[in-house]
Design brief:
Keywords: Hydrolase, Manganese, Metal-binding, Zinc, Zinc-finger. It contains 15 helices and 16 strands. The protein has about 575 residues and is an alpha/beta fold. The strands form five sheets. The protein has a six-stranded parallel beta sheet with strand order 3-2-1-4-5-6. The chain has a four-stranded mixed beta sheet with strand order 7-8-9-10. Strand 15 and strand 16 form a beta hairpin.
Length: about 575
């Protein structure tokens, strides 16, 4: 690939090579991929580096891969803006959605070059970590890329794109010079202009227009100056190339991209959590981080309240199968830059990790409770006061802790008949109303929770009216179908566990037997006596000469049958519903 093409044509070539049938596909394929958050720096650096390495000797095709599914491109309007200035569009790039599976593209037939990270993460890590050969990155070295790699650059800069420009500057200049023989000067300048925008966009964003002294390095300023020289040489040089020949002014370009990046008002809360998302695994815990360019006050308002924000974060962590979830926010208030962090633990091991993090890094990071700790779910319990069915509180009735989020749960239950508060285990949920009377709780087979006194009065009133007993809420009949006896529902004993006293309700998959226990035993005894009379001759009628069994054998058989019947009744009591 010696003749240079536009960025758009280069991306089309990469997509065609990747989509080729396995029998016709060039191997090994070399991929250039940014980190899993797929921010502007990762996306643009991958395309810029892949282009320059493809057209520089030895002219090996490098496929730039966006580390996100295609649907997630719509969450990055700033990337679309830079692509437009580079003469291409999101429809042209290669994403995870186009990457063939291992059954079609063997990991052994791939080489990987990382930009903006030095350790492969997410779903790619599980397949291709062993194929990582090189990296260009500005983060801390994780020691995953071999030190003898042909290209291993890990230096602190504001933007990874600055390192890409620094590493490829000589090759880029050589391309611009050598290509003039096969392409017109205007075409070369137009291509260089396209590429310059790919580098300038992330550099200006990551260094706050080169004004952030804490982030901006000499590599960033040198790279920006080099790229701007490309724009001065290329702007306006190609007729009708409106995207690449727009007049360039640094602040205007920065402000345009920054506004698109930070304006997340049109995105849903879930979209904001997945837009800049990364994932790692270590010490048996899967960790995910979401970075959001707004503060938690904005997110809470967007969610409709702090409780709903916490629920949305919990659902996102559950969807991604995370043990530990961190939400990192950045914002500016009164001209002052501010960061916030929320750590959400989903397992016992993750809870310990989160507490260790808080203990070890609170002073270093200057951590303090958000909004007087109102979102600190390690301290604030969730109060359940709208539960109408036992299934709503069953997960917490024995422990008082949500088994998924490990958040404390307090139960504030009321009888639907009298409105009195129902008594629940004190070890789980202390009395929230010390001066109020507590009504013993009765749980019905249908799952409704009624005060015991109200239930007794209701049953008596139904009996007086010669009506069958039922649930005062849903009218579920409280009588056994065959024998017609009352289904007795004693009050919930707060000293016992649920398993020791209460079978599954209908909503939980439980059932009611056709007969009550005493009637069931009487029917079993009657069936046993009938069987004995029909199959075992009595002492009065059996002949001592022609009986097939001796009397001693008959007595032993009768005893055995009785034992079997009693065992059957006991098994039935232990394994069938106890309603």
């Amino acid at each position: 690939m010696t003749s240079r093409a536009s960025v758009k044509t280069f991306l089309a070539t990469a997509r065609t090579a990747l989509a080729a049938p396995p029998s016709k596909r060039q191997t090994p394929l070399t991929f250039v991929v940014g980190n899993e958050s797929a921010d502007l720096d990762s996306l643009c650096s991958a395309i810029l580096l892949a282009y320059l390495r493809t057209y520089a000797p030895p002219h090996t095709l490098h496929i730039p891969l966006c580390h996100i599914p295609r649907d997630d491109l719509s969450l990055r309007p700033e990337f679309t803006s830079v692509l437009r200035r580079a003469g291409t569009s999101p429809e042209d790039v290669v994403t995870l959605s186009e990457l063939p599976g291992p059954e079609s593209l063997s990991p052994a037939d791939t080489h990987w070059l990382l930009v903006d990270h030095n350790a492969l993460t997410g779903q790619l890590a599980r397949l291709y970590s062993a194929q990582v050969e090189s990296c260009i990155d500005h983060h801390a070295d994780e020691g995953k890329v071999p030190r003898d790699s042909p290209l291993r650059v890990i230096e602190k800069t504001g933007s990874c794109a600055s390192l890409v420009v620094e590493q490829c500057r000589d090759a880029w200049d050589a391309l611009s010079t050598s290509s003039s023989s096969s392409s017109s000067a205007d075409e070369i300048r137009a291509i260089d202009t396209n590429l310059a925008y790919l580098g300038l966009g992330p550099i200006l964003i990551d260094t706050s227009n080169l004004q952030n002294a804490d982030k901006t390095t000499k590599s960033d300023t040198d790279a920006a100056a080099y790229l701007e020289s490309k724009l001065k040489g290329g702007a306006g040089s190609v007729a009708n190339a409106s995207a690449s020949s727009e007049s360039y002014e640094r602040r205007s370009f920065h402000d345009e991209i920054a506004h698109l990046k930070e304006d997340i008002t049109s995105l849903s809360l879930r979209d904001n959590l997945r837009k800049d998302y990364k994932e790692w695994e270590g010490a048996g815990v899967r960790l995910g981080t979401s970075s959001v360019p707004q503060d938690f006050a904005f997110l809470a308002k967007q969610a409709g309240g702090e409780d709903k924000l916490a629920e949305a974060i919990r659902e996102w962590a559950k969807e991604k199968k995370l043990g530990l979830m961190a939400v990192l926010t950045t914002s500016a208030q009164d001209g002052k830059f501010k960061r916030e962090v929320l750590v959400w633990a989903q397992s016992e091991k993750a809870v310990e990790a989160a507490k260790t993090f808080e203990k070890q890094h609170s002073e270093e990071l200057g951590l303090s409770p958000w909004n007087d700790g109102r979102l600190d779910l390690d301290e604030a319990a969730r109060i359940i006061s709208d539960a109408t069915q036992f299934v709503d509180i069953a997960p917490y009735i024995d422990t008082g802790v949500d088994p998924v989020s490990f958040q404390p749960v307090l139960l504030d239950l009321k009888c639907p008949c009298c409105g009195y508060h129902l008594d629940v285990p004190a070890r789980v949920s202390p009395n929230l109303y010390p001066d109020a009377s507590l009504e013993p709780m009765t749980v019905l087979p249908c799952g409704h929770m009624i005060g015991s006194h109200c239930m007794d009065n209701w049953i008596r009133s139904r009996d007086a009216e010669k009506e069958p007993p039922n649930c005062p809420v849903c009218r579920f009949e409280l009588a056994y179908k065959h024998c017609g006896c009352l289904i007795r529902t004693p009050g919930y004993n707060t000293l016992l566990s649920r398993a020791a006293q209460l079978p599954l309700t209908f909503v939980e998959g439980g059932a009611v037997d056709h007969n009550c226990g005493p009637c069931r035993d009487r029917r079993a005894d009657w069936a046993l006596r009938t069987w004995i009379e029909e199959h075992l001759p009595s002492d009065r009628t059996a002949s001592s000469t022609d009986a097939s069994l001796t009397r001693a054998q008959q007595r032993r058989l009768q005893a055995c049958v009785g034992d079997v019947a009693r065992s059957a009744r006991n098994w039935h009591r232990e394994h069938s519903p106890r309603w």
